[in-house]
Amino acid sequence: MAGYLTTHVLDTAHGCPAADLSIRLYRLDGEDRTQLAEMTTNEDGRTDSPILPQDRFETGTYELVFAAGDYLRGQPGAQDSLPFLDEIPIRFLMEDAETHYHVPLLLSPYGYSTYRGS
Fold this sequence. Notes:
mainly beta, four-stranded mixed sheet, four-stranded antiparallel sheet, 1 helix, 10 strands, 44% strand
């Protein structure tokens, strides 16, 4: 099985998936940064297809950029001021061409966490 990349974004402040959150994927090669995909999360906080599918998967260094500020401004009770968090970049290495990489984001207005999921 060839490798692929997925994500799941959960809004921990509201206790629900983060729907309609924009995500961009970049491949990094030294100083070069190439955008490979741009997707939006569905009602389950996931993208409808892998961010990097098997037929386009290559090992290397990547960066997911989550548009947290846009998402947070659209939530009930959001303040009129700019949110504390804006874009959240997560840079990581995918070194096994046969592995499913899953990079979840747990998001709240004032913090976030991530981990290597399965």
